[in-house]
Every structure is written in structure tokens, then in C-alpha cells.
Write a structure and sequence with these properties.
The complex is a heterodimer of chains A (806) and B (128).
Chain A (H helix, E strand, L loop, with lengths): L2 E6 L3 H12 L4 E7 L11 H5 L13 H6 L3 E4 L3 E5 L4 E4 L4 E3 L2 E4 L3 E3 L12 E3 L3 H10 L5 E5 L3 H12 L3 E5 L12 H13 L3 E3 L4 E5 L6 E4 L4 E3 L2 E4 L3 E3 L2 H5 L8 E3 L10 E3 L4 E3 L7 H15 L13 E3 L7 E5 L9 E7 L4 E8 L2 E8 L5 H10 L21 H5 L5 E3 L4 E2 H11 L4 H8 L9 H11 L10 E3 L2 E4 H10 L5 H8 L8 H12 L13 H5 L2 E2 L5 E3 L10 H13 L4 E4 L5 E6 L4 H8 L11 E6 L2 H4 L7 H12 L8 E6 L13 E6 L2 E6 L2 E2 L3 E2 L2 E6 L2 H18 L6 H8 L1 H7 L5 H17 L26 H4 L1
Parallel strand pairs in A: 1-2, 1-7, 2-3, 7-19, 9-16, 10-11, 10-16, 11-12, 18-20, 34-35, 35-36
Antiparallel strand pairs in A: 4-5, 5-6, 8-17, 13-14, 14-15, 21-22, 22-25, 23-24, 24-25, 26-27, 28-29, 30-31, 31-33, 32-33, 36-37, 37-40, 38-39
Chain B lengths: L6 E6 L8 E6 L2 E8 L2 E6 L13 E3 L2 E3 L6 E3 L16 E2 L1 E4 L2 E5 L9 H14 L1
Antiparallel strand pairs in B: 1-10, 2-3, 3-4, 4-8, 5-6, 6-7, 9-10
Classes of the chains: A alpha/beta (806), B mainly beta (128).
The structure holds siroheme, flavin-adenine dinucleotide, iron/sulfur cluster and FE2/S2 (inorganic) cluster.
Flavin-adenine dinucleotide binds next to helix 1, strand 2, helix 2, helix 5 and helix 8 of chain A.
């Protein structure tokens, strides 16, 4: 007969331990009791749910199918109140008893609520469970004054989450510095500055004496006598292990339930795991050691030879985008024999400190740059002799080969600290299960499913090892600002951010790169319709000087020639310019216009002035041209005036920027002489109507455009083009051409949200387009009002070099 | 022979906007001066890949990205960052005095050793 194993606590440690048991040979029938009504979820990521980066569904670790398919009985929403050790029964809140042969207590901990008068008032919350998070999300409104009591990891993450929801947030902390258990005072001061730069108020040291308000909280009073207004209070003052059940049953309990190296309590039939335990005098508040405990417990309870739990070094990482904090090991530098190695750069906000003893790493604090974090955890765990590394303790020599870092790691090195997955395990999984993508790897090994900080490494490893490695479509813009396009648009709008540097400072690494800076520039321009701080240093050179850079560093000039129609006068001016500036090549382009190639940067403004024609935007992600055919004006088959319609369309959209270039075409009949069916937007004339097609391509890929709508009048046709154009501007990802955009969203959805949208929605789209258009100007006018005095000028040195040659 | 430093006055610092670069012809060579939030650094204005004008690149932290094919160089050391091949550009000592940028054009330094130079050339040929 099978033995009955009961687990009390359906949280991270308990369920992870059951997962380990399932991997081993065992004869248990398993029942898990959990007083939360949810299946096992990733508690670590609650901060991300609060911040709006993830939904409740995203953080589920084991769905109900998992319990079913493993034959586990899940009793959710059931609280175990008592434990009858003699009769081996657990008794729930309703008094119902269930017998067990073996019991695992995995009750975790609860938020510690300090005895401050007023904590029972309405709108005073804690932050521990999914239900807590949901309650907070309901209350956190724009403009709401939120106060977080506690400046530790949890408090800061809660504060940031609430702020991203639009609250005005203050953090009140009892101690002199933030996260004092993980950081020294200098590190704490760096952290404080960073948190304040996000717009969160930090009040230190400040002891809360009472929560004020009549039933509902409306403020705090401090020991200093000062008061602070508050609509919402979150208490994040620490945790206390849930030991009542064990204590009532007479198990040995100190701060936590006392366990040995095999996670056995003072009763040999009862094990405990997770935050509720105390091992060798230590309690735990982070996931990584709990996973180790789970492995030891699983081995012991199934009678398999396995690892014992002998303690673990703690490593903490703050999960706030743009605020990089890492701390591990002991931070006590007053201990005898401890020497410290430090580096500080106040303007970059970087602070690193290593504590060494006998050439072994004792502890580490990283603020502002945690890129080397993994080395340090390795050194701590392995107790590596650092004598040979002394020169590179803070800045390891740059790896020249991208795969080197991976190649240097031993197979036993842990890549995913949360789930304890080693390099060797991952490589085995890749080969034995033919894994090619990160999500397959996650499913198979659980690596990178908890806090996510090893995602990069897992990807590198996949790239190095998997024969059919596939990059997954990136949902985040870039590692400098690790948010999706949608989130970024929301953030910029919500937080009223109007410059690239601001976005990078608050949500990114403060630096940015050639990938994210132009993308952010585009998004700002699109969102604020030109009413933002234009930062030329964030733009590619083409957009700094409004011309296309050539292989020799000169530029090409393509004036706008709407609809491909020109005049003798224009052609004469072009010819004169070509002569005057000795332009090496004048070429008819593939887009029905003329290109002057090989122009020097310093000549650009003069060339534009002499041409007297507007910019054709051939250098930028913006409106290129509308190719047209001769239509009803001259062609014997023409049924629509495509030339005039094309010129009109070009005029309505020119000078606007788009996620990628937009090329259009208008043709007078379905013979399609100007190739409208392979353009981003095409107008195809028919007898008495226009077909509007979108998402066509004939470049790197060839794609026939999808029909958006057929309309009767030219005005409606132009409006349909405008609707699609603005919709693409707002929803396209930077560098996503319409051919990818239309496939990503699907033409049905696009129709529904543009041409078939309700009138008010259409009007809104068109109004935003109009606002942008009203502020858009011909970039070549910068010849008269340059963005910077040396925008086009070739700088002449003051000292000539003759002196130097002497 | 001991070479003396030869600081040449180049241009008022406000001629180079923050986080941008500008090129200057001086001493028979073309250099690119960058403004890193008020700190000025100088490198030769020629990408070792195919001669791209580095002054026109996007600055990212203390690196610049060549506008032609995206090689990245550290502005302080001149070393290519994370390119698959070892490559570098010359850097020149730079300082600001009375609002004017001075560059010591005779004391450019290159970090590469002869052997990395040879192998980088070989690899560039391979890429072509
Ligand atoms: C000048 C021109 C070729 C010509 O001599 O005719 C040209 C020149 C360049 N094309 Fe093009 N394309 C030119 C018409 C086209 C066309 C034909 C058209 O517009 O009908 C296409 C196919 C349609 C399309 O856009 O898909 C075309 C598809 C591309 C592509 C592939 C885009 C794609 O996603 O499929 C690129 C690369 C890119 O954008 O990523 C590109 C990029 C380029 C760049 C900008 C490469 C670069 O980044 O430096 C070339 C600039 C050369 C220079 O030094 O100035 N060019 N290019 C044409 C300028 C048109 C104009 O008046 O603005
Ligand atoms: C917002 C937040 C962010 C965090 N961030 C990190 C991080 O970045 N890194 C990190 O390592 N750790 C982090 N942690 C800590 C981590 O979540 C915990 O260490 C981990 O969840 C502990 O696992 P556990 O199983 O011991 O406890 P829990 O996950 O709390 O599970 C215990 C479960 O048992 C239930 N229970 C308790 N008593 C009973 C009973 N009598 N009957 C039935 N059920 C009961 C509880 O309701 C709970 O569901 C964070 C925690 C929070 C709240
Ligand atoms: S096809 Fe376009 S991108 Fe390619 S060489 Fe010709 S102009 Fe340049
Ligand atoms: S010339 Fe600089 S990257 Fe090619």
C-alpha cells in the first residue's frame, strides 16, 4: 500500500520539494494543503505584477494540470490549524482530519507587522501574497499618496511598483541607510540617490509612531513629531516564520522550526522546508537556499542517498529596473583579518566593494553595475583562492570571444541560482531533448523561471551549444532599457517622460546604445507629436544632418519630387547644383526621384538652399514617396486620377516619422504600373472606386499587400491611408516594416481598429495625425536655423600644425 | 630622442555638443573629438574596418559605434569592444584650458601589440 505524504503549504519551497520527490523513486500518495486559493506561483515576481510588468497568469509555476497529471491532490483554500502527532493527523480549520505517514511543513512566513497603533486601519496593507498584490493594485490610483514603511528589498520593490502605477510614493525607514542588512552605509547612500532620482521620496531615519485617520488611514506620525499625509500605507518591515502549527504540536521551535541537515524536525516523521525553518541557527528569506533544502529533503524522505543541506551563502538582488543592487556573503568589514577592495564612480552611480580574508572572498556589494555578479557568487561558493585574480578583482579582463565566458565555466557551475541548475544539467538537457529555444529550456530545466537574472547566460549557453538555436522574438527593446515597446510607450505617456536621457536614467542603464537611442527618439516624437526634447546625440548620423551617409563618409541628397512629377525649372536647378558642387553622380532612383550622390557634409545646407526643394526624407525612417502612374490624365486605360491622388497623399503625410520607412504608390488602374501592390500603402484605382492595400513589399522580402478596404471617393481613400498610417505609427515597433507589422497583428485586427473602427475612434487617430503634422517641418530648413552651430560645419583647428612639425 | 609634448589648441569646447563627435584635420591627420558629458576625448577619425568616419557615430556610455557597419570602440583605450577581432584606433591626450580643447597630436597611443595587429589584418581580409 502507498504511504500518504502530506505537505502543508502550497508555496515555493513546498512545491519545489515535491517536484524533487517526483524525480526520485518513491511510494507516496501526495496531498498538498494551501491556505491561498491559487496554484503554486512565483512569489518573487509579485513585485513585477505590482509594477505592471507581468500579469497574475504569467507567474504561475505549476498549473492545475501539473497537480492532476502527477496524481497530487491539491486542497487549496484550506488552512491546517492543528497537528496530532500521536495519531499522525492534520486537522483543518473546519475540524476535518486527514491521516499521514510522513508530513512536510512548508508554511513559509508572513509579513511582520510592528506594534504601531493604527495598523488595523483601512488602506493599511502588507505585500506577501497574490491577494495582497491584487488589493494594492485596486487602491493604487494615479496621484494617490502612498507610504511604504520599510526600506529593505521588499519595501523598495513595493514602492517602485506603486510609483509605476502613478502613486506619489514615500519610503520611511527606521535605520540610517536603506537595505542596511545587505549594504554598507556608502552603498546605502548610492542606493538612496538612485531611488530618489526615480522620483521616490526617501525618509531616513524615521520611526513611525502611529498611523492616523478615522477608520481609514490618512497619515503617519513619526517619533520626531513630524506628520506625513497618506492615502495608502504598505508595511514591509520584515517577515516572521509561520511556526504556530509546529509550536502547538510541541515540535522544537526557536525563531523557525528547528531542522537538521536532512530537514527532519524533532519528530522523525515530520520534515520542514522553506522560510519556516531554522537550520544551524539560521533562518532564510530567499529562494535559492530553499531549493537546496528541497533537494536534501526529497533525498532523505524517499530514502535515497542524496545531498545534505549544510547551509548556504545568501545573495540578494534588487529587482527594480535601472537600479542595480547585488549583495552576497558577509558585509561586516570590521571582522578581524578582513580587507576590502573598493571602486566608486559617483557620477555614474557605481560602487563596488569586495571583502576578502586570506585571499578568499567573504562578501560583496555591487551598486550600479552588477554585470560581474556571477563571478563573485562562484568565488564565494567555491571559496576560490583569489591570489591569481588579484589584479582583476573588480574589472575582469574583457573577454574577446563571446563564447569564452561560457567556455570558461566548469560544468558544475550553477547558472540558475534560484533553481540550482548547473551548466552541465543545461547542456545535457539541450542534447537529450533537442532544445533550441529559451522557452523550451525553461520548460525542461526550470532554469531562468524564477527571478530571471540568468536569462542572458542561458541564452549564451544555448547559442554556444544548441545546434538548432533560435533567437526568440525579442519582446524587450534592448538590454539598456529592458521593457517591451508597449510598456515603454505606456511608461513615457504615464510618467510624462519627454527626453531620451530621462527615459534611460529612470528606466534604463543611464547610457543607452545605438539600438535603443534612435528607437526611443522615435517613440518620443510619435507620442508627444513633436512636443518633446529632441536629442540629436541619440540619432543616427543621417538624422543629425538629414542626408544619407555613404561608404566614403560623404552624403546623398534626394529632394522631394511628389508623385515622381518634376518640371523643367526643377531639373535645371538640379543640373546647376550638380555643376556648382561638382557632384560625382546624379542618378534616377528606384523610387521615381533624383539622387545627388557624394555631397560633402559642409556643402549640404548650401545644396539644399540652391535646390529650393524640400527634403525627400530618403535618409530616415519616415515618409519616403508616393510613386504614381499617369492615370486618367494621359493613359488610355486610366480610370482614376492617380497622379493627383498620389501627390495629395504625399503632401498629407510628408515630413512625418514612422517606425520604419514608408513607401507608397498610387495607380490609375489594376495594371498597376507604379507597383502599388508591393508598397507599404497602395491606392489602386478602379472604375468608380479605390482599393487601399497595405503591407506590401518588394525589397528583402516580397509580399503582396493585403486589401484594407474598397471605397468610392478619393477623399475616403486618402482617409483610409491616413488611418492605417497613424495606426502603424502608434503600434509598430521601431524598425518594423509594414510587411511584418501587418503579419504580426493580422489584417482583420487592423481593419477593425482603423477603417471599421467607430467614428469617434477614427477621429481620435486622425486628430493625433493632424497634431503631429501641424508640428512637422521640412528638415532641410535647418540650413537656416541649425540645431547646433557646428551641425554641418567642418571644424578648423586654431593652431595650425606647422609649429608641430618643427 | 625624448619627444616633448605638443599640445595644439583645436577649438572652443562648445563647438562639440554633448555626446557627439566632430572631426578636425590637424597635423596631416584627421581626428575625432568627443564630448562625454563635459569630458573630452580624442581618437583618430578612421574606423579600422573600412575607414568609416567615427566622429559621426552614436556614443553609448564611453564607446562610439561606427556609423557604417556598427563596430564599437572604447573612447578611452581605442580598443574595439566585443568585435570578434582584435582591432583598435589611436587615442590622443586631450584637455581643456580656458574653454579651448587642446590635443597632444604627437603622443597618440595604440594599445595593440604587433601580433594582434597582424591577426586583425588577416581577419579583416578574410571578412572582405
Ligand atoms: C538610392 C536607392 C537606389 C537607387 O539608386 O535607386 C536606394 C539606396 C539605398 N537603399 Fe534602397 N534605395 C532605393 C530604392 C529602394 C527600393 C525601390 C523603391 O523604393 O521602390 C527598395 C524596395 C522597396 C522597399 O523599400 O522595400 C529598396 C529597398 C531597400 C532596403 C530593403 C528594405 C526591406 O525591408 O526590404 C534597404 C535596407 C533597409 O532599409 O533596411 C535599403 C537601403 C538602402 C540604403 C539606404 C542603404 C543604406 O542604409 O545606406 C541605400 C542608400 C545608398 C546611398 O548611399 O545613398 N533599400 N530601396 C533608391 C532610393 C529611392 C528614393 O528615391 O528614396
Ligand atoms: C514581493 C516579494 C519579492 C521577493 N523577492 C525575492 C527575490 O527577489 N529573491 C528571492 O530569493 N526571494 C524573494 N522573495 C522571498 C521568496 O518569495 C520566499 O523566500 C519564498 O517564497 C519562500 O518560500 P516558502 O515556500 O518557504 O514560503 P511561501 O512561498 O510563503 O509558501 C508558504 C505557503 O504556505 C501557506 N501556509 C502557511 N501556513 C499554512 C497553513 N497552516 N495551512 C495551509 N497553508 C499554509 C502560505 O499561505 C503560503 O502559500 C520575495 C518575496 C516577496 C513577497
Ligand atoms: S541594392 Fe540598395 S542597399 Fe544594396 S547596394 Fe544597391 S543601393 Fe545599396
Ligand atoms: S567602416 Fe566602421 S564598421 Fe565598417
Amino acid at each position: 500500500m502507498k504511504r500518504h505524504l502530506i505537505v502543508v503549504g502550497n508555496g515555493m519551497a513546498g512545491v519545489a520539494c515535491v517536484e524533487q520527490i517526483l524525480k526520485l523513486r518513491h511510494d507516496f500518495e501526495i496531498t498538498i494543503f494551501g491556505d491561498e486559493t491559487h496554484v503554486n506561483y512565483n512569489r518573487i515576481l509579485l513585485s513585477r505584477v505590482l509594477a505592471g510588468e507581468k500579469s497574475a497568469d504569467d507567474i504561475v509555476l505549476n498549473d492545475i494540470g501539473w497537480y492532476r497529471s502527477n496524481g497530487i491532490q491539491a486542497r487549496l483554500g484550506v488552512r491546517i490549524e492543528n497537528l496530532d502527532r500521536d495519531r499522525r493527523l492534520v486537522i483543518d480549520a473546519q475540524g476535518q482530519a486527514t491521516p499521514f505517514d510522513k508530513l512536510i511543513i512548508a508554511t513559509g512566513s508572513s509579513a511582520f507587522i510592528p506594534p504601531i497603533p493604527g495598523v488595523e486601519k483601512k488602506n493599511v496593507h502588507v505585500f506577501r501574497t497574490l491577494d495582497d498584490t491584487r488589493a494594492l493594485l485596486e487602491k493604487a490610483r494615479k496621484g494617490c499618496k502612498a507610504v511604504v514603511i520599510g526600506g529593505g528589498l521588499l519595501g523598495l520593490e513595493a514602492a517602485r511598483g506603486l510609483q509605476l502605477r502613478g502613486c506619489e510614493v514615500s519610503v520611511v525607514h527606521l535605520m540610517e541607510t536603506l537595505m542596511e542588512r545587505q549594504l554598507d552605509p556608502t552603498g546605502g547612500a548610492y542606493l538612496k540617490r538612485k531611488i530618489e532620482s526615480l522620483g521616490i521620496r526617501v525618509m531616513l531615519p524615521q520611526q513611525t509612531q502611529a498611523l492616523l485617520g478615522n477608520g481609514r488611514v490618512d497619515g503617519l506620525r513619526f517619533a520626531s513629531g513630524e506628520e506625513l499625509e497618506a492615502d495608502l500605507v504598505v508595511i514591509a518591515a520584515g517577515i516572521k516564520p509561520n511556526v504556530d502549527l509546529a509550536r502547538k504540536a510541541g515540535l522544537e521551535v526557536r525563531r523557525g522550526i528547528v531542522v537538521n541537515d536532512h530537514m527532519v524536525t524533532s519528530d522523525p516523521n515530520i520534515h520542514a522546508v522553506g522560510e519556516c525553518t531554522e537550520h544551524r541557527g539560521q533562518t532564510f528569506g530567499l529562494v535559492a537556499p530553499l531549493m537546496e533544502q528541497g533537494k536534501a529533503l526529497a533525498a532523505a524522505i524517499t530514502g535515497n542517498e542524496g545531498p545534505a543541506f549544510t547551509g548556504s551563502t545568501s545573495a540578494t538582488k534588487l529587482k527594480i529596473m535601472g537600479v542595480e543592487i547585488f549583495s552576497a556573503g558577509s558585509i561586516d568589514d570590521s571582522a578581524p583579518g578582513v580587507e576590502t577592495v573598493r571602486y566608486e564612480d559617483p557620477s555614474l552611480g557605481i560602487y563596488k566593494k569586495l571583502l576578502l580574508k586570506n585571499n578568499r572572498l567573504e562578501g560583496v556589494i555591487l551598486v550600479g553595475d552588477v554585470s560581474e555578479e556571477r563571478h563573485y557568487t562562484g568565488w564565494l561558493r567555491e571559496e576560490t583562492n583569489l591570489a591569481p585574480h588579484r589584479k582583476h578583482l573588480l574589472f575582469p579582463p574583457p573577454a574577446e570571444d563571446a563564447g569564452l565566458e561560457i567556455a570558461e565555466m566548469p560544468d558544475s557551475e550553477v547558472i540558475c541560482g534560484c533553481n540550482g541548475v548547473t551548466k552541465g544539467t543545461i547542456i545535457d538537457a539541450i542534447h537529450s531533448s533537442g532544445i533550441g529555444t529559451l522557452s523550451e529550456l525553461k520548460k525542461c530545466t526550470r532554469a531562468s523561471t524564477s527571478c530571471g537574472s540568468c536569462t542572458n547566460l542561458c541564452e549564451q549557453l544555448l547559442r554556444a551549444v544548441a545546434s538548432d538555436f533560435q533567437e526568440e522574438t525579442r519582446t524587450t527593446l534592448c538590454s539598456c532599457v529592458p521593457f517591451s515597446y508597449e510598456q515603454l510607450r505606456e511608461i513615457m505617456r504615464g510618467q510624462q517622460l519627454k527626453s531620451v536621457q530621462e527615459v534611460l536614467n529612470v528606466y534604463g542603464n543611464g547610457k543607452g546604445c545605438e539600438v535603443c537611442k534612435p528607437a526611443l527618439s522615435y517613440m518620443l516624437d510619435m507620442l508627444w507629436c513633436g512636443d518633446h526634447e529632441e536629442d540629436r546625440s541619440a540619432r543616427f548620423i543621417n538624422d543629425r544632418v538629414h542626408a544619407n551617409i555613404q561608404k566614403d563618409g560623404t552624403f546623398s541628397v534626394v529632394p522631394r519630387m511628389r508623385g515622381g512629377v518634376t518640371s523643367a525649372d526643377e531639373l535645371r536647378r538640379i543640373a546647376d547644383v550638380a555643376d556648382k558642387y561638382k557632384i560625382p553622380m546624379v542618378k534616377v532612383t528606384g523610387s521615381q526621384r533624383i539622387d545627388l550622390l557624394g555631397v560633402k557634409k559642409a556643402d549640404l545646407p548650401h545644396v539644399w538652399a540652391d535646390l529650393g526643394m524640400p527634403s525627400g526624407q530618403a535618409y530616415t525612417k519616415g515618409v519616403r514617396m508616393v510613386k504614381t502612374c499617369v492615370g486618367t490624365e494621359f493613359c488610355r486605360f486610366g480610370v482614376q486620377d492617380s497622379t493627383r491622388a498620389g501627390i495629395e497623399l504625399e503632401q498629407r503625410l510628408e515630413n512625418l516619422f514612422t517606425p520604419h520607412k514608408v513607401k507608397m504608390g498610387a495607380v490609375g488602374c489594376p495594371r498597376n504600373c507604379a507597383e502599388a501592390t508591393v508598397k507599404d500603402i497602395g491606392m489602386i484605382g478602379q472604375d468608380g472606386s479605390w482599393q487601399i492595400v497595405v503591407g506590401g513589399a518588394a525589397g528583402k522580402s516580397v509580399r503582396k499587400a493585403d486589401l484594407l478596404i474598397t471605397v468610392e471617393t478619393t477623399e475616403l481613400a486618402l482617409e483610409a491611408c491616413e488611418l492605417f498610417f497613424q495606426y502603424y505609427r502608434e503600434n509598430g515597433n521601431y524598425l518594423e516594416r509594414t510587411y511584418d507589422f501587418v503579419e504580426r497583428l493580422g489584417i482583420e485586427k487592423i481593419r477593425k481598429e482603423t477603417v471599421y473602427a467607430a467614428e469617434p475612434e477614427k477621429k481620435k487617430l486622425l486628430d493625433r495625425l493632424k497634431r503631429s503634422k501641424a508640428l512637422a517641418k521640412d528638415a532641410w530648413l535647418e540650413r537656416e536655423t541649425p540645431a547646433h552651430a557646428t551641425q554641418f560645419v567642418q571644424i578648423e583647428a586654431i593652431d595650425k600644425t606647422e609649429k608641430a612639425i618643427l | 630622442m625624448i619627444s616633448q609634448s605638443n599640445w595644439l589648441r583645436v577649438t572652443p569646447s562648445e563647438n562639440i555638443p554633448s555626446l557627439e563627435g566632430r572631426s578636425v584635420q590637424i597635423g596631416g591627420r584627421e581626428i575625432a573629438i568627443f564630448n562625454l558629458h563635459g569630458r573630452f576625448v580624442t581618437i583618430e577619425n578612421k574606423c579600422p574596418h573600412k575607414g568609416g568616419p567615427l566622429c559621426d557615430g552614436i556614443v553609448s556610455g564611453t564607446t562610439v559605434v561606427c556609423p557604417l557597419h556598427g563596430w564599437r570602440f572604447d573612447l578611452d583605450t581605442g580598443l574595439a569592444v566585443r568585435a570578434s577581432l582584435p582591432a583598435c584606433v589611436t587615442t590622443f591626450p586631450t584637455r581643456v584650458e580656458d574653454g579651448v580643447i587642446l590635443v597632444d597630436i604627437d603622443h597618440g597611443s595604440r594599445i595593440e601589440s604587433e601580433e594582434t595587429a597582424a591577426s586583425s589584418l588577416a581577419q579583416i581580409r578574410l571578412q572582405d
